[in-house]
Design goal:
The structure is a single chain. The protein has one helix at residues 66-72; strands at residues 3-9, 14-15, 20-27, 30-38, 58-65, 85-92, 99-105, 110-112. The chain is mainly beta. It has a single domain (3-112), classed as Sandwich (Immunoglobulin-like). Strands 2-1-7-8 form a four-stranded mixed sheet, with no helix packed on it. The chain has a four-stranded antiparallel sheet with strand order 4-3-5-6. A hairpin with a 4-residue loop joins strand 1 and strand 2.
Length: 116
């Protein structure tokens, strides 16, 4: 199953459909863009970000375009917004396991965990 993500908009109680996300591999302070994508109507990417065959042990970063998403939903955010982009740095140690990285987000808070 590899690597996947899912975003829930806790302000509206819905999946964060249309949110832009970028996936990076990281090494120390450097990051290399792997891909950019937009979440589907279920707040998920269309398919896994990596399958088990291509997922490598190492460190990764997901960057979620939170402020742009909430503005697109008509939320009046201050300038600068409290949360603009949410970056989640995480490690993959066991490539034979599924790594699911969910994000619960509002314009003022976020939470994550390793999901199933």
């Amino acid at each position: 199953m590899g690597l996947s993500t899912h975003v829930l908009d806790t302000m509206h109680g819905t999946p964060a459909a249309g949110m832009a996300v970028a996936l990076y591999t990281t090494e120390g302070d450097s990051a290399t863009l792997v891909r950019r994508f937009v979440l589907n109507k279920d707040g998920r990417s269309d398919g896994p970000l990596y399958d088990n065959d291509s997922l490598k042990a190492g460190t990764y970063r997901l960057v979620f375009e939170v402020a742009a998403y909430f503005r697109s939903r008509g939320v009046d955010l201050p300038e600068p917004p409290f949360l603009d982009r949410v970056s989640l740095d995480f490690g993959v140690a066991h490539t034979d396991q599924h790594y699911h990285v969910p994000l619960l987000v509002s314009p003022w808070s976020h939470s994550t965990y390793r999901g199933s």
